[in-house]
Amino acid sequence: MNIAIVGTGYVGLVTGACFSEMGINVTCVDIDNDKIQKLQEGIIPIYEPDLEDLVKKNCRAGRLHFTTHLSDCLDEVEVVFCAVGTPPDEDGSADLRYVLEVAHTIGQNINHYVLVVTKSTVPVGTAQKVKDTIQEELNQRGVIIPFDVASNPEFLKEGTAVKDFMSPDRVVVGLESETAKKIMDRLYKPFTLNHYRMIYTDISSAEMIKYAANAMLATRISFMNDIANLCSLVGADVNMVRSGIGADTRIGNKFLYAGCGYGGSCFPKDVKALIQTAAKNGYTMRVLQAVEAVNEKQKTILYEKLLKIFPDLTDKTIAVWGLAFKPNTDDMRESPSLVLIRLLLEAGCKIKVYDPVAMNEGKRRFGDSLFYAHDMYEAALEADALLLLTEWKEFRLPSWNVLKKTMSRPIILDGRNIYDKKEMQENGFVYVSI
Fold first, then answer.
1. 82 belongs to the catalytic site
2. Options 3.40.50.460, 3.40.50.720, 3.40.350.10, 3.90.180.10; which CATH number does 301-433 get?
3. What kind of architecture, by CATH, is found in domain 2-201?
4. Mean pLDDT score of the chain, rounded to an integer?
5. Smallest Cα–Cα separation from 129: which of 137, 182, 30, 271?
6. What is the model's pTM?
């Protein structure tokens, strides 16, 4: 079976590598010549556990290929997955220009039946726009060529994307024809042999499921951050509150961790897009507006706590552990670190940062305005305070004796609540958490 995947970001590259691992012949397409050349040389543009080995293995096996021209492979493929970016437009709605460019190319070049599957996160109604665009191109060519469109949203978590794809908790597919269903069943059968996880819906419902899922998870995070901020005012412990409500089977214990805000490529963008979709249809998503507002405010919470310790931050040396929005990725998109570091720079701080994999991305974004440490202890050297923003495993159990001797002042602000308050105080630290 031959398929093409347009877009070689987190979604496209993981999807291509995992399908090729199951014996499918995959051609990954991207307009970025430099990226494609590096992929052909075995250089992976993103950090994702297990992905590099998977790509190299299947390239050597001749099942995974890379090109800059979709038109070159359309005569050979049965399915085209669209996994291009849908960045937020000025009003927060999803920008569909890249998705529709793919549709134009398909309509201009196909000569046989093709199933066009939208993998990108797109608003309800996008599949119809893709269908109309392809049909318009076929009409201009004066040809009648059958094709189908489908929606197959991804639910991959950065840091565990390969594992998530290989063993999905569900595969959602929105489609309109039995032919498309047979093809998608065939494609995903290797991943669902032990447990059939296919959920078939109409296309609009599939498009909405992706947004609704991310919006619900974002809501849980912002809710717990709101509760945490109230806990700090009334003297309650948010970790105990989380345990108490998480034990309720109607609620569950996932995504109930308070912290310094969510980030990444999905939650912020998708919440904004869903709010805009509602607005365009004359409806106000009041809950999601609050979710977004709470999260933006939460990204400043450690800065506000730091100001209570140092009302004047001028020339203070601040150590930052973690730049990525979550562990096991170098992705800094919408990361709380971006907001916090800018606030610290504006306050006149000297900032020393360390992240196990996101240092290059940090340098790209902040240049020479930061000191980039070689390890977490160098970042803490002579620091007036240490701020933990990303809960990497290596940060979980540092040597407190070394850290105390290293820092100018033993002050730690924990943005992810990974340390025990009593233990920190026993080790002589001023400890502030969420």
1. no
2. 3.40.50.720
3. 3-Layer(aba) Sandwich (3.40)
4. 95
5. 137
6. 0.90
